[in-house]
Amino acid sequence: MNSKQTISTRIAQLRQTIEAHDYSYYVLDAPTVPDSEYDRLFSQLRELEQQHPELITADSPTQRVSGQPLDTFIQVQHGVPMLSLGNAFAEEQVLEFAQRAEQALGASQGQSDLFSAAPVSIEYCCEPKLDGLAVSISYEQGVLVRAATRGDGQTGEDITANVRTIRNVPLKLQGEGWPENLEVRGEVYMPKAGFELLNQRALAADQKPFANPRNAAAGSLRQLDAKISASRPLEFCCYGSSTEDLAQTHAGTLQRLREWGISISPELKVVNSIEGCLAYYADIGQRRAQLPYDIDGVVFKINALEQQHSLGFRAREPRWALAYKFAAQEEITELLDVEFQVGRTGAVTPVARLKPVHVGGVMVSNATLHNMDEVARLGVMIGDTVIVRRAGDVIPQITQVLLARRPSDARAIEAPSQCPVCGSQVERTQLVRRSKNKQVVSEGAVWRCMGRLSCQAQLQQALIHFVSRRAMDIDGLGEKIIEQLVTRKLVASPADLYRLTYEQVLELDGFADVSARNLLSAIAGSKQPRLARLIFALGIPDVGEETAKVLARALGSMQRLQQAYPQTLLWLPEIGAEVAHEITSFFADNHNQSVIAQLAELQVQAVDEGQTDVAFQACATLAGFIEQFNISGVAHTNALRLAQHFKSVAALFAADWLDLCSVERLSKNTALALQDFISQDEQREHALCLEQQLIEFGMHWNCQRTQMQAAPLAGQTWVLTGTLEQLTREQAKVRLEQLGAKVAGSVSAKTSCVVAGASAGSKLVRAQELAIPVLDEAAFIERMTQLENR
Q1: Which of 34, 121, 228, 231 is the 20 to 30 A CA-CA neighbour of 89?
Q2: How many angstroms from the chain centroid is the CA of residue 345?
Q3: Is residue 699 pLDDT above 60, yes or no?
Q4: 350-400: pLDDT as tens digits
Q5: Is 128 found in the same domain as 231?
Q6: CATH number of the domain that 766 lies in?
Q7: How far apart are CA 299 and CA 284, in angstroms?
Q8: Which residues lie across from 144 on neighbouring strands?
Q9: Inter-CA distances, 678 with 248, 282, 646, 681, Å
């Protein structure tokens, strides 16, 4: 690669390849290469451009962030006004919208009397109404040249530099056939997961967190320094174009834009009646909390562009589109008092008692305050006027205090020094959560009752969790019965459930001979659960159902889990440093050891998982092992150098000063820190014990494990929908997971197969739209049986 022409050709090839990978990843949601390969290509391109800056172009993937911070935003005049949408808040308003459109279109087709015109058939395009910031993006000759906010609809602000940083906005259009000048319009928003991470970073840096994803998106997009925008997890979703003659329908227009690399909503759907629109609204409303982004309603647009042109516009909104909003989620009310509840892990949580108010169609009188850190962040006091919001339409929470309305007799909220249930001491525990790369991802504190299971609230919640369907699955032990058992002091720990006698159960309210025997039979029948269920049932903090499955399939026994060092657990998939710490702390606790020992004495033991699953069993690396010890100066690169030089832990600990100095490019200060580390007997013993455990668990870098055949469905994602007659949904899920599949709750382009029972609804429709294989129950059972009998 010597000539200028050859270099220019290679740069063009790299840009084209990277753009194709971006399109697959961000638009099709179907990555074509691993991140490491993408990073390698990107690094090659950046290095060549640095060597030949005269070949850099504005549409290069490396140029998403460039230039100096702006002094102010420039005003931009929209060629075609960015109008608002009419709103509907009730079904009657939606039906009236459709009736007006049908009659107006009938009149425009030769029926002179608007009010007597026969209705015409209308097809609608439906999509979620994202809660973000409306923007316009212009392309010339396929290259992004300008982006602007909506502003007042006529004039916006030039935010080109900031929009260029959004990863799913193409700097250059894909494919061919795009017009010389193209303007697309859509919403810039922040996904829920990105919003949470952004606020975690803000808290870790002692900065004020954002109130909600919409504010975070708007604030991120209006930064004068584009580098700040680039650090924020923003995404773009196109909802239309002001450029004409792209297609004959609105949906067709969006599909063409998608082919050119523009992201559109995966929830886009065309229906042939207004009743279909209402059904779409109901479906999205049910799934709203599970969507990865906030929405405040859905938008209906008449699909045929010819019909749109016939209907035209009012002063500030089109006659052919309508936003059907969800019920209001925020209201103003008064904080009357704060009470403290005690949870399963002893966490003492403040709960706000509010003056009752309707929020999102539901009367709300209580709201979560999460913890005392949240109380401090909000600056809330008893007596304050507050804004309450239903998060995900389920859990009400206070989002803001109206300080201007604070009364003179407002009282501060203070954490109790004693448990409000049992009177035990309440202790403040500082939490510092860190990721595997040792970066702080959140900080906080929790107040805990130290009474453990002697606290009636903790005991009752622990038992409810222990017997639940996804844990030990003891049928017949509902909350009311557990409350009786705890109140009458018949049960003081989960192990005591297995000591209950017929006479004790018979004395409980609502029990007779048959029901008492059935309950005891259900308790006895739960003595041999699968290991994942038992791990989950124990109630280890931060260990949910999926984490319990990872632990069970990777370690294979309760004994190994109890013995595991936190550094060992870190090598397992999806186990972070905080979770590893919680697991080892749980098993180190004498009280928990006693409960587990009692369960074992009562023959409550998990079914042996047998040979561990290689798919869930990660091998440690020597470099990673060295890096875990947080030696000053030994980060990833130096850990790799040490691993390559010494080849083993024993050789590293046997090294003298000359050996350390002979390591390539190792600084003197780092060598001194290493010498200090390896000279300590305690560190040496800990490292050797950890290495021995990795060997015993089959996770050592030199371990010669017998590789099992991969699970038949490893790497696949299945979705269950509809009613199954021969199996329960849980039984079907267990069979899939035992064969290595992941069971998801929604259909996407990554779904491998859908199992559709009776009355399957939108998930089946979505699978058919995406051409995903669908099995009925009989075919599913046959397939499972074949795979299980291999």
Answers
A1: 121
A2: 23
A3: yes
A4: 999 999 988 765 788 999 888 888 899 899 999 999 999 875 445 788 988
A5: yes
A6: 3.40.50.10190
A7: 11
A8: 139
A9: 73, 64, 13, 8
**Least confident among 51-55, 71-75, 678-682, 702-706:** 702-706
In angstroms, the CA 585 to CA 90 distance is 53
Ramachandran assignment for 585, one of left (phi > 0), alpha (psi -120 to 50 degrees), beta (any other)? alpha
Question: Which residue, among 674, 15, 582, has the nearest Cα to 345 in the 3D structure?
Answer: 582
Chain centre to alpha carbon of residue 173: 29
In single-letter form, the type of residue at position 22 comes to: D
Q: Of 129, 325, 549, 763, which residue is the catalytic one?
A: 129
| Whole-angstrom distance, CA of residue 203 vs CA of residue 2 | 51
685 and 774, same domain (yes or no): no
Boundaries of domain holding 608: 533-696
Half-sphere exposure of 321 (CA within 13 A, CB side): 25
For 31, the token pair is: 């990555």
Under a CB-based contact definition with an 8 Å cutoff, are residues 161 and 146 in contact?
no
Q: What ranges make up the beta strands (E) of 584-736?
A: 717-721
Question: Distance (Å, rounded) from C-alpha 284 to C-alpha 128?
Answer: 8
Structure-derived torsion over alpha carbons of residues 639, 644, 650, 652, reported in degrees to the nearest 10: -50
What's the pTM value of the predicted model, to 2 decimals?
0.53
Using CB atoms within 10 A of its CB, is residue 419 exposed (0-12), middle (13-18) or buried (19+)? buried
Residue 21 placed within a domain: yes
Direct distance between the N- and C-terminal alpha carbons of the chain, in angstroms, rounded to an integer: 53
569 and 654 assigned to the same domain: yes
CATH number, domain with residue 520:
1.10.150.20
Based on the fold, state whether residues 573 and 640 are members of the same structural domain.
yes
* 111 CB neighbour count, 10 Å cutoff: 14
In the residue annotation, 527 being an active-site residue is answered as no
**237 shares its domain with 208:** yes
Same domain? 31 vs 110: no
Among 275, 307, 323, give the residue marking a domain's end: 323
Give the count of domains, the chain: 5
Residues 237 and 268 in one domain: yes
Report the pLDDT value the prediction gives residue 715, as an integer from 0 to 100.
Answer: 76
Q: Which of 329, 443, 456, 345 is nearest to 394 (CA)?
A: 329
Q: Kindly report the backbone phi and psi dihedral angles of residue 301, in degrees, each rounded to the nearest multiple of 5, phi listed first.
A: -130, 135
Q: Give the bridge partners for 386, in sequence order.
A: 333, 401
Task: Tell me which amino acid residue 471 is.
Answer: A
Other C-beta atoms lying within 10 Å of the C-beta of residue 573: 12
Residues 230 and 189 in one domain: yes
d(CA 605, CA 417): 38
CA max distance for the chain: 99
Residue 53 belongs to a domain with what CATH number?
1.10.287.610
In a domain, 392, yes or no: no
- Please indicate, yes or no, if residue 709 is contained in any of the structural domains: no
Which string of b and e fits 264-284 if b means at least 16 CB within 10 Å? Answer: bbbbbbebeebebbbbbbebb
CA distance 102 to 47: 59
Question: Does residue 462 contact residue 346 with C-beta atoms inside 8 Å?
Answer: no
